[in-house]
Specification:
Two copies of one chain form a homodimer.
Chain A: H1 9-38, H2 43-53, E1 59-60, H3 61-68, H4 72-84, E2 88-91, E3 100-103, H5 107-135, H6 146-172
Antiparallel strand pairs in A: 1-3, 2-3
Helix pairs in contact in A: 1-2, 2-4, 3-4, 5-6
Chain B binds a DNA duplex (30 and 30 nucleotides) through residues 42-44, 60-62, 70-77, 79-80, 97-99.
Chain lengths: 175, 175
DNA sequence: CATTCATTTCAAAAAAAAATGAAATAAGCA
DNA sequence: TGCTTATTTCATTTTTTTTTGAAATGAATG
């Protein structure tokens, strides 16, 4: 009637543990796919990190690709991205020439890298753009050009505040 | 030889003021297109806000569309987004039945709305997902399941920290 | 140093996101 | 109310982003 009755107890236990780990993995992938996509990262990057986050063992690229059912091209690019953010690292495994990846799980550091690499460069170029705006203002400011000067100043304050706050943000992360 | 020599002085001045305003406008559009796209907003939304940010007069939708050379469909959708973030508001203009839009320029409020509308909902559903993860853990935790429990706890701390920090962030914005 | 296996690269395909514009709807006016 | 103008909606098209997979490159092994 019930197949599980014919399964030895130890095997049954192990199989349900496997199912549980697989559930976790799926929830984790889901979680990080969404989080990463909020940060503008492609799906595959979230999938890879999500898989590694709940993996006890470090995994080689080909296993990552096959477990996620993505191409090795995606896996390679996704791992490159994650490596550059220091979100994954590689472990040496004796007798295996593949690189084995595992997740860096200190979120404080992860966010600090993300902010430095993905946000600060934009802020820097924003400053240039604001300087250019100022050059478009007539030197001898007419009464009415006050309007433009004020708006430019607001932008300057915004970028300045961003430049201070964002790097400090990771520090505030008390996890 | 030089055409500008034949242009009356007053007109020449006005025209260079127009050119300057146009430069500002273009830099502004560029600025906000990039900023908005960092926040995951489509190009058109940045263009519209950038145009309005340096516009002394409030503008009706059709003028926004034609000055940006985008379709009225894009303009309508973009304005809807901006309205929902309270990034633009409408002004009444006597004798004109079109809505006239102008930019809300208090960035503190804008970010606070953005965080509330675009980020907090994701954080809420992340909490559910973490609860589901915990259900995948065996009740009677084996020694080795410590690993999973710790990782889940990390996620919980991350979302908790995010839930506190992000709303506080706008408050820190001293502009 | 030749072979095998691992990884990267990148042109092409697929998928996702955004823009268009015409039809439908709404909203003011006479 | 009927007419006109403004706005929204949404199926289709366009553009952009991401993925794929095969070829090129690189790296370890015997």
């Amino acid at each position: 009637m019930n197949e599980s009755m014919t399964v030895p107890a130890n095997l049954q236990t192990e199989s349900s543990a496997v199912i549980n780990a697989r559930n976790l993995e799926l929830e984790s992938i889901d979680f990080f796919v969404r989080l990463m996509s909020m940060l503008g990262m492609p799906r595959s990057v979230g999938e890879i990190y999500g898989l590694l986050y709940f993996s006890k063992d470090s995994l080689p690229m080909d296993q990552i690709a096959s477990r996620l059912e993505i191409s090795i091209g995606s896996a390679s690019q996704g791992l490159r991205t994650l490596r550059s953010l220091k979100a994954v690292r590689t472990a040496y495994v004796a007798g295996d020439r593949r690189d084995h990846y595992f997740a860096e799980t200190e979120f404080r550091r992860l966010f600090s890298n993300f902010i430095k690499d993905e946000i600060m460069p934009h802020l820097d170029s924003a400053k240039d753009r604001i300087s250019r705006m100022e050059k478009s203002l007539p030197e001898q400011s007419h009464e009415e050009d006050e309007f433009y000067a004020v708006r430019i100043e607001k932008l300057r304050r915004l970028t300045k505040a961003g430049g201070r706050l964002l790097p400090a943000l990771a520090g505030l992360l008390k996890l």
